Amino acid sequence: MRHQAEPMNTPYLTLKSIQKNFGITQALKDMNLGIHLGEILGLVGPNGAGKSTLMKVITGDHLPTSGEVIFQGAAQPEANFNPNVAKAYGVACAYQELSLLSNLTVYENFMIHLMNHTPFARPGWRTRAGDMTKQYLDKVFPDHGINVNASVSDLFLAQRQMIEIAKAISHEGLKILILDEPTSSLTGDRILQLHDAIRSLGKQGIAIIYISHKLDEIEKICDRVVVMTSGTTVWEGRREETSMHDLVEILGGKVTTLHKVAQEDRNLPVALNIQGLTTEKLKHIDMHVRKGELIGISGLEGAGQHELIQEIFKASRKKHLLPRNSSIALKTQVSYVGGDRNNEGIFPLWNIADNTVISNLDQVTRAGLIQEHRYTALATQWYNKLKFTAQGIFDEITSLSGGNQQKVWLARGLAAEADLVLLNDPTSGVDIETKQEIYKLLDEAKQQGKAIILHSTEDLEMEQCDRVYVMHEGRIVEELIGEQVTVQNIIKTSFREKSKGAAVRKEKDFKRRSGSIIGKLVNNKAFLAFATLISIFIINSILNPRILSYMGIQLLYSSAVPLVFIALGQMFMVISGGIDLGNGQSVGLVNVLVAFIIVKTPGIGFMYILLFILAYAGLAAIIYWTKIPAIVITLGASFVWLGLALIVAPVPGGHAPAWLSAAYNYDFPVIPMPLVISTLAALLAYWIVRKSKYGMVMNGIGNNPQAVSRAGWSQLTAMIVTYSLSGLMIVIGSFMLTAISNSGDCNSARAYCMLSIATIILGGCSFTGGVSSPVGVVAAALGISSISFLLTFLGIDSNLQSAVTGLILIIALALKLISSKIVVKS
Questions:
Q1: Which range has the worst mean pLDDT, 50-64, 150-164, 637-651, 784-798?
Q2: Are 31 and 54 in contact, with CB atoms under 8 Å apart?
Q3: DSSP state of 3
Q4: pTM of the full predicted structure?
Q5: CA 312 to CA 292: how far, in whole Å?
Q6: How many Å apart are CA 442 and CA 619, to the nearest integer?
Q7: Which of 101, 42, 45, 96 is nearest to 769 (CA)?
Q8: Residue 716: is its pLDDT beyond 80?
Q9: End-to-end CA distance of the chain
Q10: Alpha-carbon span 438 to 427, nearest angstrom
Q11: What is the DSSP string of 223-266?
Q12: What sign has the CA pseudo-torsion 215, 221, 226, 231?
């Protein structure tokens, strides 16, 4: 059945004696593997077997500790092998943990992976990119219903996985496609589409490495199977030489099935009752769950399963606030376990014990204090029960494989004193042995009288349930009981009344929600900044009508211009995931350089300015190489800037160059010069961040640097670019400050540090990195400056102005939060 490509004795890729160590942990040991073009290779093994590590060696993410990676007979020099080299050999990977940039749109995620590294592109490239992205998605997942202009952060996990897969397949010159647990979040219909695409790629001579814990998929799709345990191969052979039962035994597991009841026991107490639940996604949901039952929620991807689970969980969080006529009636406490452990589940800075016990503090505390013996006993109990692959309960959670991390989250949910457990695809990406352990735990929980609601993307897993509610387009269309719960019945019911226009309706629904004028305004990052700016301007105008004149506006916003550029400088640093706590002192340094040196010897002065910008680029390199947080490095740099400034000008003095004062005070027709400069600054920064090709890379580095590196871009280069832009903005802001003050004083600019932080927050930026709004930042700088003008006009003591300004900002941010929630609900 092997797809014909090249002779079996000439592998396109050979891994020879690969070993990979992480400290004392040996993830791979003496691993050998040959991969031929045109074959579909199934790679299976328990969690922690080293499968994902092996794939990261192939993609260049990890350098092997020893051994050789050989492409077409040529061994790759260890020091030079990286994602770019692997990409050049046609290697692409859809990662289990997903390598997407959630702050970018769908098409931008494709383009950062596909586009060349030239700085500019022909006009209209974004429209062409969107069309190309849709074609790639359509090719793999017809009728996918994904809007390519939507932000990835707004999509469901299943949609993100489809994007990850299609993005990998879109690789130009594809030779080896690695799919690491590609169907962990996909439903049956999407899996069939993917398998069709894989078979087509195999016929085109492309090798596929298919990693999955779903052994039935391995049996259906693969030509050859390799079984790994403990970092090495333990079995290898043709697919027809083995069976799913044999593979389970090789992996050390035994297939078990939960005890199922033949029909509903109406004598069991009701834990949950839902009558007529209707939301934006759900329509007239009626269901009930009894204690001692395992209830399944199934259906095609996007049918409303996730929303139903989330609505139940949200109701449990505010159970005491539910009105008597609420659609959801809860009779017990609720715990929640999901499959998206990276975003919903684990606390990455904590150890196994902390992650296990966090939801069960009532069991380990007395008088509000943790009892060490109870804490250790509870964590140890579940550690032993779930057989973690670790040294002990105090190992870091991030030292575990993905499947073992999922075990920790499951232990947290089942250990809770809750009689209703919500399981939202809890076995996503875990191996067959772990699944069997989970099924046993669920059976124990049932026997203890717990009610369990299980949503799974694996239809086969639904056969473990007592009853299954099958959903279609937000409605429950069938209830299957006992022996009726089969994969065949679930699939047949899932496609009931399936509309050919489902994708069209999803697209229209997206446009309706995203196209609301009020929704667009309130959810726009710059909304709060402009609302503040306009409100303060109106108040200023009412109190002092002369502000409406040309000179009045110039006076109102003249002092805002330095803050505009300094805040933009802070924004560029925040984009890459850092923060500048030294920009107040750096502004002071450039201020004295302008007032004392450039005014006398421009050539030497501008040379110093260039060195200053290079110093900011150097900060990026230091942060990248040392891994010391930017907040620490920039705080330390602030003392350097201050020391240099004191050397240049120990006491205030100097003056602005005549050409600078003339340019700043130029009477521009109709529009005052401060607004002209601020508008140009906003447009320039907007083009860099939002419209330029490299802007996607800068935004991406702050969101997911690993994903950007996997796409072939340098994280170091991107950081240097953003820090250099930050330094440039500080230079321009300092020039503006010198023009306004007509002097140099290294201590006069210290307040700009906190002001710039407040400005970017008000302007719509996020400290998580990769989220920015240049126009909002500029509007916020103008608004904050006009607040100070208003307070001065009202005669408020200068010592109280900072406090009042801060209070106004807090109120504005609170209003933004409230208004956004109202829009979402509506």
A1: 784-798
A2: yes
A3: P
A4: 0.73
A5: 18
A6: 52
A7: 101
A8: yes
A9: 55
A10: 8
A11: SEEEEEETTEEEEEEEGGG--HHHHHHHTT---------SS--T
A12: negative
